[in-house]
Amino acid sequence: MTEFDREMMAALEADGEYLRQMTGQDHGPYFIDAPGCIECSAPLPSPSDAVCETCLSTAREALAQET
Ligand SMILES: [Zn+2]
Fold first, then answer.
1. CB half-sphere exposure, 50, CA atoms < 13 A
2. For residue 36, how far is its CA from the centre of ligand 1 (angstroms)?
3. DSSP, res 54
4. Using CA atoms, how far apart are residues 23 and 45, in angstroms rounded to an integer?
5. CA 63 to centroid of ligand 1, rounded, Å
6. What is residue 53's DSSP assignment?
């Protein structure tokens, strides 16, 4: 990652945080080419997935226990 990329991502995060505070909603940033699971950074089978199968099943189990 280059210095420019870091500055760009920092700027995007600042924008997202600003929108989050203004609207109370999460506006990202969402990096389409995110390197992996947002929970554990494991590689993802599909770039459209945000979390890996392991984290997904863990979340499902946690939900199942709440009900
Ligand atoms: Zn994961």
1. 7
2. 8
3. H
4. 32
5. 16
6. H
Q: Which residues are close to ligand 1, an ion, with C-beta < 5 A?
A: 37, 39-40, 42, 52, 55
Contacts of 15 (CB under 8 A, 6+ apart): 27, 29
User: Are the CB atoms for 12 and 28 separated by under 8 Å?
Assistant: yes
Q: At 11, is the secondary structure helix, strand, or coil? A: helix
Distance 50 CA to ligand 1 centre (A): 9
Distance in angstroms (rounded) separating the CA atoms of residues 65 and 40: 22
The tens digit of pLDDT for each residue in 3-50 reads 888 888 888 888 877 777 777 877 666 655 657 888 898 888 777 788
